[in-house]
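Two quick folds needed for the group meeting slides. Do the first one here.
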Amino acid sequence: MIRKLKFFASGFLLTLLTACGSANEHRSDNVPQAEATMVPIPITSHTPIVLEQATLYTTQNDLTGNHVINGTTDLLDATTLDIPLDGKPTWLVSAPFKDGVVLTAIMNDGKALAFKISGQSFEPFDISTNILPAGLPPVLAVTEADIQLITPPSDASQHTNPILIGNNLIYIASNGDLVSSNSISQTRLPINALIDSRILMDENNRLLILTQPTDRYNHGVLGDAIEASAITLVETSPKLRVMQTILIEAPDVIEGLSPIWADLDNDGVKDIIVTLSNDRSGARIVVYREDGMLLAETPPIGLGHRWRHQIAVAEFEAGGP
């Protein structure tokens, strides 16, 4: 079956949602701190892609989890390009490259179809990796001369994407470990990550990951009934180390694949925004400080098996919150 991918040439506009309210409850960290272990990479093992000076582009738009794009557009006046695809795409990721944009569609069998879009025209584009494990979210690593799809090692979770920090490929393993790997060695930190959690990263290369999977809420809005019950903050330098774990008390779970990591109260420090849900009162938006202090939350929906979710953090009007 030939399917068409419609690309809006004038750009995209994302809506915004932030949490409000206040509280002073403190969530303490009672989780034993895991120690990272380093092991040598055997000569026969997979060697991760190393791209110095690369910029990463993922389906998240931003590695802080904030789905907002600055600018304006008029979708009513937008022109479109119809790009025929031989199959059904499950993921789309794009990146600026030279004088245009490279748009990559990952099909349901993992095949990658890439197109270079310039103005009102497009043409097939050859990227160095043309297939991923089926269902794996893609990551494009872009330099001035090349674009590559990052291929994760064989022990990586097939439900989330890796990221790059320098020459190190950072990924969640299928057993929930956090792994930092390069061509010489591999460091593993047992954090019991949700295997479809997205890895967030800030300007200091710290990581924020959903952890401690639980099945205590069977809504399954994201495809299965396994959700996170903790948020773990990890530093990567000088070594992988858990800095903080925020525990979510039962019956709540974190109903999402990643927080938004943004400075909501303009104090210069990023806050952590998540959706908490349970089967009695449903979903609500909650904001934590990095030390686990509860800053704000919305009222819950009032009914279980319903969903409210954070999308983006930004000013609704100039000079506003």
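Then this one, please, same format:
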Amino acid sequence: MSSIRTELTNTPLGIFLVNQLDQAKRWQERALAEIAQSVQDNEAYQGYLISRYISNPLLINGKKFDLRLYVLITSFKPLRCYYYRQGFCRFCATKYSPDGNNIDDKFMHLTNVAVQKQKKGYNRSHGNKWNITAFRLYMERVYGRGKIDSLFDNIFWMIVQSLKAAQPLMDNDRHCYEMYGYDCLIDANLKPWLLEINASPSLEDSTPTDRIIKTNLLMDTMRLAVYERCPQLLGIKEKSIDGSDMPLGDYEILYLEEVTLKNVVEKKAEENAGRYGPVTGPSKSSKKPRWKNIV
């Protein structure tokens, strides 16, 4: 099964599913005809994106879910990015079934609030959401802390690698910053999948918890962005290179490229020193925080 999405749509309302090749071919014929007509009329046309559907999603109480995570990038060259600890876990309202007969049930397959709130009986007090803290507590209770730490390490690695992939193409304006909304799906094997990256994630609040989290998100984002460009406004005379004086709030450092490169050089020097004699004491690299080891 595959999902098809209109390229210029920034909501999930333009997504539909197909489970047979001839369905995709018929859709392709219609899409090409629409594009040809738009070109002939000198009008803008929509592109489409087709992707494989993850058919073995991890379920909680029988329902499919995904994660909305917020990532702040204050520089692409060097890459400096931060992960916000207070994201969301978004649930479908209908219990999941792999039966192809349910392919048109968007309340079973699409977790986005814009879709789920259309279902009769939608609970506006919690909006079919958990915050990430509640999600982690549940997952650790079921699978153990070690497996969930590994899961989030893989998510962090995926985020950093996606930013590195785009790094050569991004303009690096030192007066700007970006906050992205990452949507991730977890399959039954606890493997994370990147669904999409939202350049302009919705900051509309749909629940009381939404309002609290997104208000704090904006405040922490602005404080950290100001620190990066003008720390004097926060009473900081000079920034530390390792980030020890950062006003992180609920952000945590995900990747600082200049610090990572420095650590690589130091580690290489330690290895070279070890060739010519014993290195006394524990290796400094063994005690480095997780984010410094993502290369």
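Slide caption for protein two: Residues 1-53 form one domain.
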